[in-house]
């Protein structure tokens, strides 16, 4: 799975997207309707635990406030994810604190929050 570009789709059929197709460190990861741009494609390696943007080559990283941004990968535990399978989807948990997981908060935002077993915390990786 690591060498193929993947789309990460939320419960509402929007996909993880780097805002404004930014190449900048610190740019936010958001949800957006699928359009097929490289800013919506990611290399996902479940064994290493990283999610790397195809477009920017930066890693999805949780900041101290729970926002998801892209940063240069340097092996921080805030850049490593645990992929817990649930049928054909995944709960994407933060390695540093597995109670925290990737959550779609509305139509366009992604953050970390405590796991609540809700559909907005399940992700389809295709």
UniProtKB/TrEMBL annotation:
Domain Ricin B lectin: 3-126
Pfam annotation, one family: Ricin_B_lectin
Entries under PROSITE patterns matching the protein: RICIN_B_LECTIN
Cross-referenced InterPro entries: Ricin_B-like_lectins (IPR035992), Ricin_B_lectin (IPR000772)
Protein's recorded name: Ricin B lectin domain-containing protein
